[in-house]
Design goal:
Radius of gyration: 15 Å
Number of strands: 3
Helix content: 25-40%
Shape: globular
Strand content: 5-15%
Number of helices: 5
Strand order of the largest sheet: 1-2-3
Number of domains: 2
Largest sheet: 3 strands, antiparallel
Distance between the termini: 40 Å
Order of helices and strands: HHHEEEHH
Structural class: mainly alpha
Length: 140
């Protein structure tokens, strides 16, 4: 249902590496070809795809707009405050697009916002991965 009804309505979909593998029907592997994943998800009806990935073998967000591929390197931090990073990324991407940014610029902005939210995350909260800190970004 997600693929058939929502993908065609979206401007861009933003699965992380695990989700992208599931959508493309390939086993998860840290070194999986992100370009091939993005193309497979695009073929399912998504107009544009960003396979997000501060995790896996390579810290890179991979954009495919149906015509060209763009690798967007993202920093990898030793922090364990990553809970909410995907939601932060997609919200920043949507906001940037709503402000009139082009797709690539919006994806780069989203990668930067999500990365900084992880860097300033709240690892001391809870157990396991703490939440990202989007409120701390305003002070930067």
């Amino acid at each position: 249902m997600l693929v058939e009804r929502l993908f065609p309505l979206a401007t861009v979909v933003t699965p992380n590496l695990n989700e992208a593998c599931a959508l493309a029907g390939v086993p998860y592997d840290d070194g999986v070809d992100r370009a091939a994943l993005a193309e497979a998800i695009h073929a399912l009806g998504a107009p544009a795809v960003v396979v997000t990935g501060g995790h896996g073998a390579e810290a890179v967000d991979w954009l495919f707009d149906g015509r060209r591929h763009v690798a967007i390197p993202v920093p990898r931090y030793p922090e364990v405050a990553t809970h909410g990073s995907g939601c932060t990324h997609s919200a920043a991407l949507a906001a940037s697009l709503a402000r009139g940014s082009g797709l690539e610029e919006a994806v780069r902005t989203a990668a930067d916002v999500a990365s900084r939210a992880v860097l300033h995350g709240l690892s001391e909260i809870g157990s396991g991965n703490g939440p990202v800190d989007v409120f701390g970004l305003a002070a930067l």
